[in-house]
Specification:
It is a single chain. By secondary structure, the protein is an alpha/beta fold. The chain is 43% helix and 9% strand. The strands form two sheets. It has a five-stranded parallel sheet, sandwiched between helices. A two-stranded antiparallel ribbon has the order 4-5. Helix 1 packs across helix 2, helix 1 runs antiparallel to helix 11 and helix 2 crosses helix 9. The longest helix is centred in the first third of the chain and has 26 residues. Bound molecules: thiamine diphosphate (TPP). The site of thiamine diphosphate has 14 residues, from strand 4.
Length: 349
C-alpha cells in the first residue's frame, strides 16, 4: 500500500530566516531615492488598477502589493545592457525600466496582448503561463553570449513556478551552457492557495544547486538587500561565472489576482505580520535615518504617485475596443500562411 506524502511541515510560509545575504554593498543615495520613488509609484498604480478591476474596467488584475522591494530593488541593479524576462506581476520591474505602466492596462482589460516595445526597455512581454518565460530567457542569454554582447538576462519567477518542469529544464540549460542569466525567484509565500512549503522541502535558494546554479536567499522586503544581492550576482555572471539564482523572501499582501479570495486559505495573523514589514515605510525610515531624503522629496514622490494613479484611471477609461484583426498582427515577424488564413477567416465573418 503506497503511503501518502507527509503533510507539509507548516502551511505558513517561512519568513526570512535571518541567514539571508546581508547587503555587503549599499546603493548610492540617489539610487536609493530612485528605488523609493519607483516603489511608491508602483504601489499607487497597482492600487489604482485594483480599484479599476473592482469597478469592472479591467477583466483581471494581479496586484504587486508587498513585493515592491524585491522587484524595484533588484531591477535598479540592472545595467541598460541587461534584459528582463518577467512573469505577470512584475509591475515594479517595469516601472524601474521606464516602461509606462499604463501600457499594462489594455492587457488586463483584454484589449491587447501586451503592447509595450520590448526592445526599447529591454523588457519582454508578460508571461501568463507559469514558468514559461524561463526557457526563452535562457535561450536569449545564450544568444547574448554567442554575440559577445555585454548584457545579462534576469528572469523573474515565483515560488510556484519553480515546480514547473520547464524551470528545471531552464536551469539545466543555463548551467550546461554557462548562460549569463539570473533566476530571480520571488518567494511570496503562496502559489495561489498552495503554500511554498508544500512545494519546496528545501529552501528555494538551494533549488539550483543540483543543476550547478548557485543561489542565495535575500530578505525580499529590504530594497537595499535586493539591490545588493542582484548587483553582486550580475557582477559574477558578467565575470563569466555562469548562471546564478536569488530567492527573495517576500510576501504577497493582496490576493493572487482580483479573482482570488485569500481569506479562504491564509490566516489573517500571517497577513498582519507581513503588513508590519511593509517594504515602503521600511525604506523611507532608512532614508530618513541616513539623512538621504527630506520632506520635499517625499512630498514630490507622493504627488507624482497621485498623478500617476489619476492618469492611469483616465487612460483606462479611454481604451477603445480593438479591431479583432489586430490580434494576428504580431504573431510572427514575417507573414505566415496559417496566420494569414485565420486572419482571412475572421475578415470573412
Ligand atoms: C502552466 C500553468 N499552470 C497553471 C497556471 C495557473 N496559475 C496561474 S498563477 C499560478 C500560481 C503561480 O504561483 P507563483 O509562481 O508562486 O507566482 P505568484 O502568482 O505567487 O506571483 C497558477 C498555478 C498557469 N497560469 N500556467
Amino acid at each position: 500500500m503506497p503511503t501518502a506524502l507527509a503533510p507539509s511541515p507548516s502551511p505558513v510560509p517561512a519568513p526570512p530566516a535571518g541567514d539571508e545575504t546581508p547587503p555587503a554593498i549599499r546603493p548610492e543615495p540617489a539610487v536609493r531615492r530612485a528605488i523609493y520613488r519607483d516603489m511608491v509609484l508602483t504601489r499607487a498604480f497597482d492600487q489604482a488598477a485594483t480599484a479599476l478591476q473592482r469597478q469592472g474596467e479591467l477583466a483581471l488584475w494581479a496586484p504587486s502589493l508587498g513585493q515592491e522591494a524585491a522587484q524595484v530593488g533588484s531591477a535598479h541593479a540592472l545595467g541598460e545592457e541587461d534584459w528582463v524576462f518577467p512573469s505577470y506581476r512584475e509591475h515594479g520591474v517595469l516601472q524601474s525600466r521606464g516602461v509606462d505602466l499604463k501600457q499594462l492596462l489594455p492587457l488586463f482589460r483584454g484589449a491587447d496582448n501586451g503592447g509595450w516595445d520590448s526592445e526599447a526597455h529591454r523588457v519582454h512581454l508578460y508571461t501568463l503561463v507559469v514558468g514559461a518565460q524561463t526557457l526563452p530567457a535562457v535561450g536569449y542569454a545564450m544568444g547574448l553570449a554567442l554575440d559577445g554582447a555585454a548584457g545579462a538576462v534576469v528572469v523573474y519567477l515565483g515560488d510556484g513556478a519553480t515546480s514547473q518542469g520547464e524551470v528545471s529544464e531552464a536551469l539545466v540549460w543555463a548551467a550546461s551552457c554557462a548562460a549569463p542569466v539570473l533566476f530571480f525567484v520571488q518567494n511570496n509565500g503562496w502559489a495561489i492557495s498552495t503554500p511554498t512549503r508544500t512545494q519546496a522541502r528545501v529552501a528555494l535558494a538551494r533549488r539550483g544547486e543540483g543543476f550547478g546554479v548557485p543561489g542565495v536567499a535575500v530578505d525580499g522586503n529590504d530594497a537595499d538587500a535586493c539591490w545588493a544581492a542582484t548587483a553582486a550576482a550580475l557582477g559574477r555572471i558578467k565575470a563569466g561565472q555562469g548562471p546564478q539564482l536569488i530567492e527573495a523572501l517576500t510576501y504577497r499582501l493582496g490576493p493572487h489576482t482580483t479573482s482570488d479570495d485569500p481569506s479562504r486559505y491564509r490566516p489573517a495573523e500571517e497577513e498582519a505580520s507581513w503588513m508590519a514589514r511593509d517594504p515602503i515605510p521600511r525604506l523611507r525610515a532608512g532614508l530618513e535615518e541616513d539623512g538621504q531624503a527630506d520632506a520635499d522629496f517625499f512630498a514630490e514622490v507622493d504627488s507624482a504617485a497621485a498623478a500617476l494613479a489619476a492618469e492611469s484611471r483616465r487612460s483606462c477609461l479611454g481604451i477603445e475596443p480593438p479591431d479583432l484583426s489586430t490580434c494576428f498582427d504580431w504573431v510572427y515577424g514575417t507573414e505566415h500562411s496559417l496566420v494569414a488564413e485565420e486572419r482571412a477567416g475572421v475578415a470573412g465573418r
